[in-house]
């Protein structure tokens, strides 16, 4: 799950606002440094997913002959291999589960950071972070749905996963983010 940087920053700002200002669940000595740590969690998650995709492509490249011999669809093989690798690397691939994983990591950072004063139990903190992240996922899913519908509405059928589809998806996705003030 790759989120645009502006959206990640907006999520981090909202976490800080909700946890520190609105509900006073935690209080960091340096909110700016705390914000950077939250953003780093997202960047780390993004890097893990990039490595997952890279390893998946490497495995499929090595097994290209097998794919051709068995007439197995590349996309199906990609999804299968990626799913198996994700399980081995302990990376959830569903958006909601991935955000739950990230919420847990942010909670862990808060609990381990000696510069953050904690006023509430860890479960409450994680649940609040999870709620904020789920709202962000819902918004991202709405944007994704809007983009896919626009691509389907084209008179020319564009197959998902092709370079043309990927380019079009990225362009329309960025337009949707701009319209919502997220980019």
Q: What does this 3D model show about the protein?
A:
It is a single chain. The chain is mostly helical and 183 residues long. The protein has one domain. The chain has 7 helices and 2 strands. It has helices at 5-22, 31-62, 64-70, 74-88, 95-112, 122-152, 163-179, and strands at 26-28, 116-118. A two-stranded antiparallel ribbon has the order 1-2. α5 packs antiparallel against α6 (122-152) and α6 packs across α7. The longest helix has 32 residues, at 31-62. The model has no long low-confidence stretch (mean pLDDT 88).
Please estimate the helix content.
Answer: over 70%
What is the mean predicted local confidence, pLDDT? 88
Query: What Rg is obtained from the alpha carbons, in whole angstroms?
Result: 19 Å
Largest sheet: 2 strands, antiparallel
Number of helices: 7
User: Strand sequence of the main sheet, in spatial order?
Assistant: 1-2
Strand proportion: under 5%
Count of distinct structural domains: 1
What overall form do the CA principal axes indicate? Answer: globular
Low-confidence stretches: none
Distance between the termini: 17 Å
Order of helices and strands: HEHHHHEHH
Give the structural class. Answer: mainly alpha
Number of strands: 2
